[in-house]
Amino acid sequence: MRPEGIPWSTDDKGIVTLDIANRGVFNRIAQKFFHKPKVTHVHLDETGSFVWPLLDGEKNIIELGKMVKQRYGEKAEPLYPRLAKFFQVLDSYHFLKWRDLR
């Protein structure tokens, strides 16, 4: 599911942008001395932008995959390896909160 505290928006083309605050001591130093931004804007691709709003903590990857398949058809293939990679990348940046749906 989407973790609380990550603001996001959708543009007129449906592309989702995550606004990630750069916090912590090292980020403050980088902002002050190297003019790094206080907020990083992460733009998702078309499929990621479709999936992101659906991450409500209720749907599992199989259900999400069916929705992606219905929306994009064969263009989504290979469906589950791509979805798994998407979740892996989101998780590596702590943009996901995992929940047991059992």
Defining traits:
14% strand; alpha+beta; 102 residues; single chain
Beta-strand percentage?
5-15%
Strand order of the largest sheet: 1-2-3
Order of helices and strands: EEHEHHH
Could you say which structural class the secondary elements and strand pairing correspond to? alpha+beta
Helix content: 40-55%
- How confident is the prediction overall: mean pLDDT? 92
Distance from first to last alpha carbon: 15 Å
Tally of strands: 3
Report the radius of gyration as a whole number of Å.
Answer: 16 Å
Low-confidence blocks of residues: none
Shape: elongated
Output the number of helix runs.
4
**Largest sheet at a glance?**
3 strands, antiparallel
Task: Tell me what the structure shows.
This protein is α+β, with helices and mostly antiparallel strands. 41% of the residues lie in helices and 14% in strands. It has four helices and three strands, in the order E-E-H-E-H-H-H. The chain has a three-stranded antiparallel β-sheet with strand order 1-2-3. The longest helix has 14 residues, at 79-92. The chain is elongated and about 50 Å long. The two termini are 15 Å apart. The mean pLDDT is 92.
Set out the fold topology.
Elements: E1 8-10, E2 16-21, H1 25-34, E3 39-43, H2 46-51, H3 61-72, H4 79-92
Antiparallel strand pairs: 1-2, 2-3
